[in-house]
Amino acid sequence: MSDKKHEGKLPTTDVISLILKESKAYTSMELVNSYISKGESLEKLPVQPLYVSVKALPIEVKSHALKLLSKEQRETFYDIDLWSKDELDVNEFTSWVSTVAKCPDEEIRYEFVKSDQFILFLKGRFNVWTFDVEDPLYPDDHDNYFLTEDNLLLFEFDEDCDIVDEVRQLVKDLYTEVGVEAAYQHLFKMISEDYMIYNENQYQDKKERLRDYGFVDYFEALQVVNPFPSIGHIDLFINKKRPLTGNITTKGKMQTLHQNSIIAFEKNAQSIHEELNKVEDEKRFSYLHFNFIRMLNASMEYYGVLKDGPVAMTRIGNQNRELILLGMSYIKDIRNFADESIFEYFDFTDIYKIGNSLIRILQKDVKKALRNHLFEDSDENFLGASFDLFLDDFFSDLVKYRDNDNKIVVVNNVEVWKKLQSKCKLLIELMPFIKTLKETYLSLKDDGMLSDNFYLNYDINSIDFEAIILSTLINYSLDKFDKDDSRKMGVSIEEFREFSKKSNLSSGIFKNDYITQKVAGFAQTFGLDQIENINEYILKILHDHLSGYEFADLRDDEFKHVGGPIIFNTLS
Q: Can you give the pTM of this predicted structure?
């Protein structure tokens, strides 16, 4: 490792622009098909985009393409599909068994059947026993098995196994290639080794084989995706970070990404490109190039999208871009870089982890508040439309924020993130109050004290926090809490009209003196005034529910279509 600058200068292009250019060249299915049709070697093509392209080929074409790959490339493809996170994925690997079995090249088949990946697949998919011809022991209740050529091993499989013929042929190929004694010893060694130990050893070997190609194993991906414990830890990391540049192998420098995993960075990423263009040190450039590939591969490994194809890769690519933009914006808000590039100090993994942590920490806090106050997915609707929409936006792939004018923006800069943080704080601090109202409401409901017939614009199952709090606000504003009916859950049409007239709701202006004073007094009376932004929240839901109406012109029966406060049914 080194933290010194080097004298090597680069052309004025940034890492992502270069990878985008490379990916467009190597991702083309026409290019891969051209190589295959001409029988040209695919060895010089970067592994990740080549894997995605070869994976999409028909099995007949893929079986002929195997011989155009290097042994290391074939091994890498097998490694990727044999594992899902840290578990064997024998179902995904089955396609390679079928592909190799159809390959006309004997050397490729022999190489595969002697490989650790095939042996591990057999251990995960079949029960293999030693078999004694003189004292034969067969499975008791089925005929789902076959014997090896020497009748010394029995392969048992379940009734859903659809590649028995292919496996049986490949095992025959092994006997043909190395002879009966060597083939038996090879397979016997397989069944005699402890499965868990063999599995762990092969996982570690796979991890090392894939490292130079820019792939990341599941546990390394967890280190990238798992958030910092708190915002304070993020700030400390940012302030203490110093430049550190690693050496990249020649193989690593040759790697790139499939176009769909980075196409998101072609647009709406100008600030990233501007910072990358400031990097002039060649060693740092190579390091950032490889680090960017590993960072994207880490997120794809964590979310398991590499095997899912281009659409899923594009979705995660969009998420990665927004998190990097957020991370950059937050770092610059904490620390000054003058004319230096942020990438002189932070690599893509650092920046992604910071952006991801800023979101995940808030999500964790909100989930904890919901859980602690007994709100599950099934009853989150009691929170009301404003918080319901907020949670939908907040837990989407691209985290979004909806401002007071209901304009939706992606959370990819520190200014919007601070607004999101404030909204999270509002919900968390309101949760005890919401829980109390919910318990009171459910108690009345369970005791049979509520009925759909009581209300004009709600049935009892659709009443939520917003309806209750606005009804209470109107009762407070009309001084109903000084009277005997102060405990009622709702307002009459006459009371609604009176409140509408006093607050001049039909004007569409919801921040007049009357409303703001009543909202402030209401918050104080009910002990909500210590919650930051509570007044703005109440004004917003008041506006969302009651704007656009001419209440003075509404007939009594038309109030059934008005949202917001609960209106008593006085029509019958």
A: 0.88
